[in-house]
Amino acid sequence: MKEFFDRLTRRGCIRQAKGTSCIILWAGVAVWSQACVSNESDTYGPYGVIGYNYTDRDVARFFVDDQGAGSSEAHESGGGGGLYCCIDLPKYAKTLHVKVELGLTREQYEKDLPNETFETDIRMPPLPNKHGGFIGFRFMTNHRVEASWVSFPTAPNGSNTH
Questions:
Q1: CA end-to-end span of the chain, whole Å?
Q2: What percentage of the chain exceeds 90 in pLDDT?
Q3: Looking at the domain that runs over 44-150, which CATH code has it been given?
Q4: pLDDT for 93-138, tens place per residue?
Q5: Long-range contacts of 1-8 (CB under 8 A, 24+ apart)
Q6: Domain spans in the chain, listed from the N-terminal domain onward
Q7: What is the pLDDT of residue 79?
Q8: What are the two backbone dihedrals, phi and then psi, of residue 84, each rounded to the nearest 5 degrees?
Q9: Which of 18, 58, 108, 121 is the most buried (most CB within 10 A)?
Q10: Helix axes 21-41, 2-10, angle to 10 degrees
Q11: pLDDT recorded at residue 83
């Protein structure tokens, strides 16, 4: 990046700029390059997502750090989760923010009520592979959520979780 700015200076772009067009171009390139570098170095992933539901309510959808992450049905063999692609996880985070929208009960549906939601922060799971695999989210009773990295999703007992 330094070489790029040196070339602009040598060509006189920065020295000759009486107007703002060259400076705006220079600032735009700096912001764009910083955003690209930040996105690459500040996250791990992408990871596939699987939800395992141990509750009596469907998880209509859930979000991890504002990224859509799928859904998970209650009372289904295999945990009720479908595979979802993909999320990135913040490299330096110690926790993840999870927002869960529960499926409607019959009473809520008949009264045309919105989905019940809850939010929680959970521990960032250990990530033995920084750029692959799956994150399994387990929806437990009392609005508890757990997460773990898996090389490939299997049965809800998670025999290959780490």
A1: 39
A2: 53
A3: 2.60.40
A4: 999 999 999 999 899 999 999 999 999 999 999 999 999 999 999 9
A5: 1/30, 1/33, 4/29
A6: 2-41, 44-150
A7: 60
A8: -135, 140
A9: 58
A10: 170
A11: 76
